[in-house]
Amino acid sequence: MTTRTRHPFLLFAVLVASLVGVTAHAQEGSPRRIISFIPAVTEMLFALGAGDRVVAVGSFDKYPPQIEKLPRVGALLDPDLERIISLKPDMVTVYGSQTDLRTQLERAKVPLFLYSHADLSDVTKTLLELGARVGRTERAHELAGAIERDLEAVRQRVAGQKRPRTLIVFGRESGALRGIYASGGYGFVHDMVTAAGGDNVFADLKQQAVQATTELIIARRPDVILELRADPVSPEQLARQVGEWKPLSSVPAVRSGRVHIIADLRTVVPGPRVAEGVDVIARVLHGAR
Amino acid sequence: MTSITQRLTLTLLVFGGLAVAAILLGPLIGSTPISLARVFDRSIPFADNPDAQIFFIARLPRTLAGALVGAMLASAGVIFQGLLRNPLATPFTLGVSAGAALGAMLAITFGWSLSWLGIPAAPVASFAGSLMAVGIVYLLATARHRGMSTNVLLLAGVTMNAFFSALILFVQYFADFAETFRILRWLMGDLDVSSYQPLVTALPLAIFSFATFAWLARPLNLMSLGPDAAESRGLNVLGAQRAAFLSASLATGAAVSVGGPVGFVGIIVPHLVRLLVGADHRVVLPASALFGAAFLIGCDAVARTVMSPLELPVGVITALIGGPFFLWLLVRRT
Fold first, then answer.
1. pLDDT one-digit tens code per residue, A159-184
2. What's the pTM value of the predicted model, to 2 decimals?
3. Size of the A and B interface in Cβ pairs below 8 Å
4. B176 and chain A: CB distance < 8 Å anywhere?
5. Residue B166: which CATH number?
């Protein structure tokens, strides 16, 4: 990197800082070579100040920018076991549902951090567990406290305002209103929208994802449609994709122009920035105030 | 023995009546109660009339999609069974659906977009994929033989199915979680087309295929005696085989691009129809097309209501009915 060659002092300072960091948390039992498959956990590790100990990440990790340099070792369905073991990790974060990988890693005596994402309250719970595991308990409490505080601030802000009935779309076929799947009344995205002052139109369907047919969408009459994306969308695409909802003109959200495409990682990753994500959604639902 | 004209008229009346009834009843059934009076109330502007929108935007296109896809798959099934002289052949036996699935999957995984043309990419890609599969199988089946070997056709088709499935897994490797989920849903087959545009696009192909099928009825009857016997009665066997293969493949590709690879329609319907009307293709073909339409609309009505308010993809229902039926057919034969 050019900054490094231009600023040898900076490089030196970074080196010293990281060495100091290493000695500071070289406590017994705290992992030094961490592999994280899970975007939310990767973000947490960096927020906890243990990012320098992350040696590899999963295919879908996008944040923070420091991970760009790290090797990728697959994802939920296709973990690269050989790469993982050859990197000699002393902690691997895995989804609870990755039973094969768990068995294999346990056989290889690699310590695991089990993760399952469920609802919003699990974010701070996971953060505290992870903090304890990597020897960053204090920082974890700080972060968890900040998340709770920020969430409460948003809840206060939207309290008493009219709660729009909201359709939360995770994905659909490109260019058409087909294969739409939406958030049911369970999971962190449902919780985030609820905290941001919206009522999920599929709150009564207790599953994370619902196949939302045209009929269901017309019948549920959402006031707002939120399409959540992890990847950036260009302004032209944005306008076109919002326009694709036009045929459902009896849906209040379409009629009043309240179809919003939010391309913001913070709204789809249940990580340390989840309160910011809730804030983003609240601003879309209730305007900036 | 009644004449063919009489039998055909009777068949068309009975099965045609069934299809028309299904098309009329289909839009009345759904997860949401709607008022028919409000649906047809012209004094309410369409944009403010959710009942009318559910009827005209959600249910009617879905019902018509069921009719079109069901008719195409069922009659294509008849053609393939006649062409391959194998009762277990389906529209998907020769790799058409796997090619279509690969196309759709590429479009979904890599986010191809044709929205500047105003059409979604997945149906176009799936149709292109099915054409590719058909082309390869056709070239293989005609390459080394004078004429068209149905054995090579069958083996090439089955192999292409396996090969495309491998490619599908390979592409799947690049798909993220949401895309994988969407692909899986696509593979289940789904008639929720939410506009008339996919139907209009598929209509010319459907008309062309049905016209060819009508011409093919007599040749297929002759071919059921074996290619040599058919030849000796003056049939251009190769020409008929080509026409059968291409038209049925086109119909299948078009059907899959509208509704995804809805399974088992192409095998259940022809066999049920043969049980009822006999083996004469002049009767079996129109009866299968009409009954296929009614059958798929019926299955979709079940799919839309059985877990209401959730709506299942129709392929789940046809597979649940079709799987056991297929096994029954297999056991009965051997």
1. 999 999 999 999 888 788 888 989 99
2. 0.84
3. 116
4. yes
5. 1.10.3470.10
